[in-house]
Design a protein that fits this description.
By secondary structure, this protein is α+β, with helices and mostly antiparallel strands. It has 3 helices and 12 strands; from the N terminus they run αβββββββββααβββ. It starts with a helix and ends in a 6-residue tail after the last strand.
Length: about 200
C-alpha cells in the first residue's frame, strides 16, 4: 500500500511539473523580453550608402528613432544601434538602367549588449527616376538645331530642328540611369523575420 502511495505521489508531482513548465513556456511567448517576428522598428541612417560605390558585405549603422514597447514597457530604447549589411548591389548603367541595392539588418546593440537579429526593410530602396533630363535634351537639341538652320536659310530652321531633335533623343537614350542612395539621416522602417529574445540585463 505504501509503495502504491509513493507511485501516486510521484505521478502527481510529474504532472504538476509538466503543467508548470507548460505555463512558463506560454508566458514566455508573450514575454516583454521577446520581440516576435513581424515586429517593426523605425531607423535613421548614420551615413549614406550608394549603389554606385557600395559593395556586397559592406556594413553600415542606423539608429532607432522610436522606442520599441512590449505591454507598455520600453524594451528597445531610442538611439539603440542597428547594424546592417549590403547583400546585393549593382550600379546604374546606360539606357537609363537604374542601380539596385539590397540590405539586411543583423544586430541590435544597446545597454552594453548585442543581440543578433534578422531584419529587412519594409519597403525596397529604389532610385528616384525623372524624365526631366530626357525632355530638356530633346527640346534643347531641337532649339539648337533650329538656330543653326536659321542662320543658313528659312527652310534650314526646320531641317536644323529635326537634326537637333535627333541629337537630343540620342543623348536621352544614352543617358545613364540613376543610382540608389540611402542618405545620411534618412528614416525608414524594418521588420524582424525571426523573434529576438532580450534578457533582463539589457535594461
Amino acid at each position: 500500500m505504501r509503495r502504491f502511495d509513493g507511485r501516486a505521489k510521484f505521478a502527481a508531482l510529474a504532472v504538476l511539473i509538466f503543467v508548470n513548465l507548460t505555463l512558463v513556456l506560454r508566458a514566455q511567448d508573450d514575454s516583454i523580453y521577446r520581440l516576435p517576428a513581424g515586429t517593426k522598428i523605425s531607423l535613421r541612417m548614420d551615413a549614406e550608402i550608394n549603389s554606385r560605390v557600395a559593395s556586397v558585405n559592406d556594413t553600415f549603422l542606423a539608429y532607432v528613432t522610436k522606442p520599441v514597447k512590449r505591454r507598455d514597457v520600453v524594451v528597445v530604447p531610442q538611439e539603440a544601434v542597428v547594424e546592417g549589411r549590403v547583400t546585393k548591389v549593382s550600379p546604374a548603367s546606360g539606357g537609363s538602367e537604374s542601380g539596385r541595392i539590397e540590405v539586411v539588418f543583423e544586430s541590435l546593440k544597446f545597454a552594453g549588449s548585442t543581440r543578433q537579429i534578422d531584419g529587412v526593410a519594409t519597403k525596397p530602396f529604389r532610385a528616384v527616376s525623372s524624365n526631366t533630363f530626357s525632355i530638356l535634351s530633346i527640346l534643347g537639341g531641337a532649339a539648337a538645331g533650329a538656330l543653326v538652320g536659321a542662320a543658313s536659310s528659312p527652310t534650314g530652321a526646320l531641317i536644323g530642328a529635326g537634326v537637333g531633335a535627333g541629337a537630343g533623343t540620342g543623348a536621352a537614350l544614352l543617358r545613364k540611369g540613376k543610382d540608389v542612395r540611402i542618405r545620411r539621416g534618412e528614416e525608414f522602417e524594418i521588420e524582424l523575420r525571426k523573434p529576438v529574445t532580450l534578457t533582463v540585463l539589457d535594461y
